[in-house]
UniProtKB/TrEMBL annotation:
Keywords: Membrane, Transmembrane, Transmembrane helix. The chain crosses the membrane at residues 7-30, 42-63. The keyword Transmembrane applies. Residues 1-100 form the BAP29/BAP31 transmembrane domain. This is BAP29/BAP31 transmembrane domain-containing protein. InterPro entries: BAP29/BAP31_N. It comes from the Eukaryota.
Amino acid sequence: MAIYYSLTFFLLAAEMVSFVLLLMPMPLAARKRFFRFLTESYIVGKIAYALKISFIFIAILFVDAVQRMLRVTAEAEAAKNANSGVNHVSTEVNIAARKF
């Protein structure tokens, strides 16, 4: 698995775990201590900084994927128009694989 897929999966899993932890019912005193720790901790600040950089990296990869898909779609339309209605299965499979 490529490193950006692993990074995206890890961030998604970490988000799910953190949302579950935040939504768990806790006593008020424990909840206050937990949120105070999150706002004042040096380590949490460093993790937040690393997450911001990771989100920027993933956003750049997303934009690249969208541009690639648009380019493949434009090439497929040009190929369809050039062949004037004659479709080959291997060509369609190749285009679908490139879009994926």
